[in-house]
Write a structure and sequence with these properties.
single chain; 500 residues; OB fold (Dihydrolipoamide Acetyltransferase, E2P); BirA Bifunctional Protein, domain 2; eight-stranded mixed beta sheet; five-stranded mixed beta barrel; 16 strands; globular; binds 4-amino-1,4-dioxobutan-2-aminium adenosine-5'-monophosphate; binds magnesium ion
């Protein structure tokens, strides 16, 4: 009987066959330990040299990492082992050999790993992250389906810009230029006038010429759009939606998050109501003493950690080069030194940047957009997500509804995730007045003809409406506590990276 590793608890005492790949192997002459992964979990399989195992014992000792195998044996519960079970092996069948698998337990640089992404995501950390991604996406669909939204698929070939012309990818469409969609928003606006509450969910494209931790050129975005909704209605949906995502991920992925070293208590704090500040209030915070103090404390803490990391590296290097160190211990030290070096490199860049960030915040232009470091400051000063609303209209997209109380601002929302993760949601109430929208299209230098159909929505039964977009990868980076967005998508696309 075959069994998935995740189902072994139902089969204790029975003989089962696992179908998987060799994750790790060690042996001691008379006994071989094979850690098998099958996509559902890991299980240590123990091959003891005896009459029964004679025909395959030597094979087991020599198998290369990632060989594919069918392993038969008796299931034993063992809470000390990975996954909580162990298999006493009685049969072994090699399906596909694997020699010199490029990704070994030894440390590799990120470039190497990303070039080998097709193999890299077999490794444990990536497996945990992408499992959370699966649930995140399921909950995104589930939330809107449960709450009366109709799914509307929007086109990927777009005739005009949805989010600013600087980040458009142009495609040759039978001799005419079209663009890869930056957003499905304009189309869900049309759809909400037909269905009331709708959402689209798909890949979106931005020619982001920056190599940051937060930017991909291809990312997934869900965009709900609601007819008869104003800014506060949209804010309420965004808040409820985020809470349902966090609750579901905490319920189903505690073990994955623990493996990733996520601070789970911080996620448990995500409850309604979230914080709300206006852009003007955010500007005051950035220019005020709290922002400066926060960054100065950071600078001191990070400088101290640099010294500590340097000391630790020196100590470990001395130990590693010393006499009488066993091979496994040496490997462990080499791994730790590598990790410390990576941390040190990150810290050195951060420490270099902090004075610049202090300056940016202190001189924040009250009519300007929040930069990445500004978002980080605002989000770190709150332990729940923060809505920043009412941006100056010149730093936001043409379709946003002008604020009734201050026409120089718009009824928009950006949701900043806590712990410095920054914007994960951008949205707004939409300009539903034909004349005001036309004026903005002209102001932005956009071609009115391209938006003729969009303007029709304001001609035939226009109503207040609004929505938002949530980026899957930024949200996942926050949920899993990852420093960089590149690990949140199976095959990342970034400036200078599109292989494999
Ligand atoms: O704030 P953005 O640009 O908003 C829109 O596209 C609206 N049309 C959405 C709407 O109102 N229907 O993008 C929304 C979200 C961001 O908050 C971020 O999570 C994600 O999309 N995002 C990116 N994620 C990764 N890489 C990039 N280059 C991203 N650009 C935006
Ligand atoms: Mg935005």
């Amino acid at each position: 009987m075959t069994s998935a590793i995740k189902d072994l608890h139902q089969n204790v005492g029975k003989t089962v066959t696992l179908q998987g790949w060799l994750y790790h192997r060690r042996d001691s002459g008379k006994i071989a330990f094979l850690v098998i992964r099958d996509g559902t979990g890991l299980c240590q399989c123990v091959v003891t040299k005896n009459e029964q195992t004679e025909p395959f014992f030597e094979t087991a000792r020599r198998l290369g990492q990632e060989s594919s195998l069918r392993v038969t044996g008796t299931v034993r519960a063992d809470p000390k082992q990975v996954g909580g079970h162990e298999l006493d092996v009685t049969g072994l069948e090699v399906i596909g050999e694997s020699e010199n698998f490029p990704i070994t337990p030894k440390p590799h640089g990120i470039d190497f790993l990303m070039k080998n992404r097709h193999l890299h995501f077999r490794s444990r950390r990536q497996w945990h992250i992408l499992r959370v991604r699966h649930t995140l996406i399921d909950e995104i669909r589930g939330y809107f389906n449960r709450n009366g939204y109709t799914l509307i698929d929007t086109p990927i070939f777009a005739p005009a810009a949805g989010e600013g012309s600087q980040t458009l990818f142009t495609v040759d469409y039978f001799g005419e230029p079209v663009y890869l969609a930056q957003t499905g928003q304009l189309y869900v606006e049309a759809a909400c006038m037909a269905f009331g509450k709708v959402y689209c969910f798909g890949p979106t494209f931005r020619a982001e010429k920056s190599k940051t931790r937060r930017h991909l050129t291809e990312f997934w975005m869900v965009e709900p759009e609601i007819a008869y909704a104003e800014l506060d209605d949209v804010v309420a949906v965004a808040e409820d939606f985020i809470c349902s995502i966090v609750t579901r991920v905490l319920r189903e992925h505690r073990a994955d998050l623990e493996f990733l070293g996520r601070d789970i208590a911080a996620l448990e704090k995500i409850q309604k109501p979230f914080n709300r500040v206006t852009h003007a209030e955010a500007a005051d915070i950035l220019r005020g003493p709290r922002a400066k103090e926060l960054l100065e404390r950071d600078l001191a803490a990070k400088t101290a950690r640099i010294e500590e990391a340097k000391k630790l590296i020196a100590e470990k290097e001395a130990r590693e080069k010393g006499a009488g160190v066993k091979q496994w211990e040496r490997d462990k030290l080499v791994g730790e030194i590598h990790e410390l070096r990576e941390e040190l490199a990150d810290l050195e860049v951060e420490v270099q940047n902090i004075p610049h960030h202090i300056e940016l915040a202190a001189n924040f232009d009250p009519r300007g957009d929040l930069g990445g470091s500004d978002e980080t400051i605002i989000s770190r000063l709150h332990d729940r997500p923060v809505f920043v609303t009412h941006y100056p209209r010149e730093c936001k997209a043409f379709y946003m509804k002008r604020s009734a109380t201050d026409p120089s601002r718009v009824n928009n929302l950006d949701l900043l995730a806590p712990e410095g993760y920054g914007e994960i949601i951008g949205g707004s109430q939409r300009e539903d007045d034909l004349a005001a929208l036309l004026e903005r299209i002209k102001e932005e230098g956009l071609n009115e003809e391209d938006y003729a159909w969009y303007l029709d929505l304001r001609r035939y039964g226009s109503v207040p409406h609004g929505g938002f977009g949530l980026g899957v990868e930024r949200t996942l980076a926050w949920l899993c506590g990852l420093k960089h967005i590149r690990e949140t998508i199976p095959f990342p696309r970034m400036m200078g990276r599109f292989y494999p």
